[in-house]
Amino acid sequence: MEETLIRNNYSEKEKNDIFNGEFLPHINSMYNFGFRLTLDRDDAKDLVQDTYLKAYRFIESFQKGTNAKAWLFRILKNSFINDYRKKTKEPSKVDYQEVETYYNSEDVNRQITPDLRVESLKDMIGDEISNALNSLDVDFRTVIILCDLEGFKYEEMAKILDIPIGTVRSRLHRARNLLKEKLSEYAKSMGYKNTEL
Amino acid sequence: MTPPHNPFIQADGKKPTCMEMLQVIIDGEASSEQQEYFKNHMNRCLPCFKSYDLDMAIKRLLKTKCCGGDAPTDLVDQIKMQISQNSPG
Description:
The complex is a heterodimer of chains A (197) and B (89).
Chain A: H1 12-23, H2 27-38, H3 41-57, H4 68-88, H5 96-104, H6 118-122, H7 126-134, H8 138-149, H9 154-161, H10 165-189
Helix pairs in contact in A: 2-3, 2-4, 3-4, 4-9, 5-10, 7-10, 8-10, 9-10
Chain B: H1 18-26, H2 32-44, H3 46-65, H4 75-86
């Protein structure tokens, strides 16, 4: 990602106005993102707190009135990778070469989960979808959180994750197929046997 | 009769798959020309027709079931306290 290194000389009042008016309104989304990444409420709290402290420390590199939510999400994601993941020594399990190869292959148009139907989703309460999402590998989970929960655009996701837009699309595609696999397992366990899509 | 121009075709000329087109549509990233093209395509493509409903339903379910929950009430106060402690003066 190309960085534009601009430093804004904000007064203390301006800093506080930006922090209170542009950063803090995203606290609930930030906490949800932190929780979905760490899967632990205390860790999520620490991660969000750490992110906001960093945001304040580097507030002069934030351009007032621009996309604060994306800026904050990027800091949280980086804190998660650089601090939390190292601390917990969680290895990254995703082989992106494999993902890219898959996406460029003929298999991409094949429906992986032909037994998942809209009707079966209607009986799912929150836990099934939430557990299915949480069971995905963190990098796949992240793109679904950013896109489907938080409504970020591909371009914003590319900036938050420091990856090309093409990779955002392919990772999202793979993530959704994996999520459908999980959901179809739940559907089967709930007694849906119709294998037609 | 020549088939209608596919507005999903990228500059490199690569023809998009159904799933690639569908993803752009459900994520709200399609231009109005692409939306119109896909609407016509979906009427002729049963897998796209069925996948559209399913993918939209999953997207809605994620949004409604996985977004809830406010941050702990003391979190904002703790952050503000940390900032004031770390601020000079």
